[in-house]
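Hypothesis: this fold can be encoded by more than one sequence.
Test: take the structure tokens below, design a sequence, compare later.
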């Protein structure tokens, strides 16, 4: 469930009146997502998305996120566009929360992604990386290497409840990542959360990327590592090399890799697996049983981490 703040009709009417989006007709909560309260807002001119930013989102980061979406849209990257009010501002307050309205993207995310979906993703991600090159704002990646050991510590002495020996394995993996993490690779704005449910398709073509609330300034190849984990493993946890080849090949047709990026890719994919394993681990152990959020299995990402740990060449991702 992703509606944490209820909004009354009178509040919505007053809020919508601050924009040139027509007469407010209806509003319906959106169940998907876990960070913010989201609604489909219907007006006499069409559909929009209303987002109320909850406490897990730092309000000081919102100008970066909204500014980035404006910037990417102007560069032709398909993403939600913040709607600016009559006063020129996109960010305002509603029910005591920072709030914004966005354009509505039609399309669906793939419940079972294919190599063709992966190729579309690779192309669009490379275009996004290039389009963000002249975005003037920066934001540190708060869930990168420096955060992982503290994240593990938050799970305390309960880690081995998930599977015996997990704490020792994760501490050893963190030692290796901290010792070998690359520096100086090409970077800029990355999405950092391009999971299938954040990418919309229509008739096989990618028509939108959403949920930029983990976007940050980091290595481009790290974004690729995240997508190898999110898009290139099957439900039985096996690696699909065809999807990986299509994703990476489509990406490099738009923005080619440096040799250093290719060499670092397996380690970056390991790091990406660690990042999602650790956040899932904490949620798995400490989310109350009656919570409305569905917990996700951290062991899925342990399997992926172990896979990347055994990779010795980019050829094992399908690259020649």
């Amino acid at each position: 469930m992703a509606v944490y703040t209820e909004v009354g009709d009178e509040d919505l009417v007053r809020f919508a009146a601050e924009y040139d989006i027509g007469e407010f007709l209806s509003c319906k909560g959106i169940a998907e997502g876990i960070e913010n309260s989201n609604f489909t807002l219907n007006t006499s001119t069409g559909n929009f998305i209303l987002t109320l930013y909850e406490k897990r989102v730092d309000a000081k980061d919102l100008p970066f996120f909204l500014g980035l979406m404006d910037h990417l849209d102007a560069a032709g990257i398909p993403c939600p566009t913040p709607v600016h009010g009559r006063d020129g501002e996109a960010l305002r307050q509603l029910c005591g929360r920072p709030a914004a309205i966005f354009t509505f993207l039609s399309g669906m995310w793939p419940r079972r992604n294919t190599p063709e979906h992966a190729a579309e993703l690779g192309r669009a991600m490379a275009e996004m990386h290039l389009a963000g090159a002249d975005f003037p704002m920066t934001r540190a990646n708060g869930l990168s290497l420096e955060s992982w050991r503290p994240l593990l510590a938050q799970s305390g002495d309960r880690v081995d409840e998930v599977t015996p020996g997990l704490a020792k394995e994760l501490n050893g993996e963190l030692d290796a990542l901290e010792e070998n993490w690359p520096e100086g690779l090409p970077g800029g704005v990355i999405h950092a959360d391009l999971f299938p449910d954040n990418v919309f398709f229509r008739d096989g073509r990618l028509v939108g990327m959403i949920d930029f609330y983990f976007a940050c300034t980091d290595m481009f190849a790290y974004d690729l590592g995240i997508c190898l984990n999110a898009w290139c493993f099957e439900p039985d946890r096996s690696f699909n090399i065809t999807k990986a080849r299509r994703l990476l090949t489509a990406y490099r047709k738009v923005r080619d890799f440096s040799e250093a990026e290719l060499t670092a890719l397996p380690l970056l994919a390991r790091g990406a697996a660690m990042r999602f394993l650790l956040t899932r681990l904490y949620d798995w152990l400490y989310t109350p049983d009656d919570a409305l959020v569905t917990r996700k299995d951290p062991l899925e990402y342990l399997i992926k981490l172990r896979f990347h740990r055994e990779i010795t060449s980019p050829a094992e991702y399908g690259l020649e």
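The chain has a mean pLDDT of 93. The domain at 9-103 is CATH 3.30.200.20 (Phosphorylase Kinase; domain 1).
Hypothesis status: open.
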